[in-house]
Design goal:
The protein has two domains: about 180 residues, 3-Layer(aba) Sandwich (Rossmann fold), CATH 3.40.50.2000; about 170 residues, Rossmann fold (3-Layer(aba) Sandwich). Helix 2 crosses helix 3, helix 3 packs parallel to helix 4 and helix 9 crosses helix 12. It is α/β, with parallel strands linked by helices. About 45% of the residues are buried. It has 13 helices and 13 strands.
């Protein structure tokens, strides 16, 4: 039995957290025993992780309390005889990898899931100091791997790639007849990098020509009031729906004929996979892992980042060309089913853990 402990700052309904809980709940319990360590208080979503949980109160790492949490986690790892520690996000990596090294855990993995848009020089300095304590790294796209290898000077042979998984069965493919087209974007409204403002500006460019089109923002966050004001300033408030945070995203996606991902930076988007499975024709910015799922003209349309004119042009084309929308949507569904289900994702993680342990033991 291989014991795996996952260490993350906290659990909310973000993309990384959703992926982690999905992985934990699907590991083969005949061969793997997962557990989860969180550094800070989490949402109710934490309860969906089907495994033992250790909740550390480690709000400040660089303090006497932080040092005691480090020792406590190392003691827990030794007591439980953990074989693999995998970390997510900065603080969990700093604490988790150091504790795993102290406890002599044989496999210590750092996860990379974005292009580091959040990094400050201080954060970069700290993260790079933790890398020598790790035995390996996992990225969720080739783009993320290439980025971290170049930026952090990591040996590409030490960085594996396992793309996100998605529950194919949860998403029903919807056909969209003639009539008003619904266009949507899924993502939290806490980070400007997601560019909900770009979505709205592109919508305003298209709105006069296509007055029956409606615009849907699915997600919530502290920036929502700003975006609501922007929709009003652009004259599209009456056709814009701020859906907020909802539990049943797959059901809402049935309404959308077009799904947009217009981030300035993206590791590998869960929302894009959800669009692909739901019958939404995808328009995405040509950044990061988007290019590994959206093949321009085959499984969606790609546009340059930060360009509301190009985004509006792509949206106008798909609003007007129903046959193109349908073709892209069908081909995207086929690709998502074939390549991004949970089965290959879980199998790849399990094989990576097994191989890394074998290498660590000299096998």
């Amino acid at each position: 039995m291989i014991k795996v402990l996952y260490c993350i700052d906290s659990i909310s309904r973000g993309g990384t957290e959703t992926q982690l809980i999905g992985l934990i709940n699907r590991l083969d319990r005949q061969r793997f025993a997962p557990s989860l360590c969180t550094l800070r208080p989490s949402s109710d979503y934490l309860g969906e992780a089907d495994c033992p949980r250790l909740e550390l109160d480690a709000r400040r790492l660089f303090s006497p309390g932080g040092a005691s949490r480090l020792r406590a986690l190392a003691a827990h790892l030794r007591e439980q005889r953990i074989d693999v520690v995998q970390t997510f996000f900065q603080d969990a990596t700093l604490l988790g990898i150091a504790a795993a090294r102290l406890a002599r855990v044989p496999v210590r993995l750092v996860s990379f899931r974005d292009l580091g848009f959040w990094r400050t020089p201080a954060q970069e300095f700290l993260m790079r100091r933790s890398y020598p304590l790790a035995t390996g790294f996992l990225a969720n796209s080739d783009a993320v791997k290439h980025h971290v290898c170049a930026r952090d000077r990591l040996d590409p042979r030490r960085v594996g790639v396992i793309r996100n998984g998605v529950d194919v069965g949860r998403y029903r493919f919807a056909e969209h007849p003639e009539g008003g087209v619904a266009v949507g974007i899924v993502g939290n409204l806490n980070r400007r990098v997601k560019r909900a403002d770009l979505f709205l500006r592109a919508a305003a460019r298209v709105a006069d020509r296509h007055p029956a089109t409606t615009w849907h923002l699915i997600g919530d966050g502290e920036l929502r009031p700003q975006y609501e004001r922007l929709a009003a300033e652009l004259g599209i408030a009456d056709r814009t729906v701020f859906v907020g945070r909802i539990a049943d995203v797959p059901a809402y996606l049935q309404r959308l004929a077009i799904g947009v991902m217009c981030s300035d930076s993206e590791g590998f988007s869960n929302a894009v996979l959800e669009y692909m499975l739901s019958g939404c024709a995808v328009v995405a910015t040509s950044v990061g892992g988007n290019l590994e799922a959206v093949h321009d003209g085959r499984t969606g349309l790609l546009v340059p980042p930060g360009n509301d004119v190009a985004l509006a042009s792509a949206l106008s084309r798909l609003i007007e060309e129903r046959a193109t929308r349908a073709m892209l949507a069908r081909q995207a569904r086929a690709m998502a089913e074939a390549e991004f289900g949970w089965e290959p994702c879980v199998a790849a993680h399990q094989e990576h853990y097994r191989a890394a342990l074998s290498a660590a033991s000299g096998g």
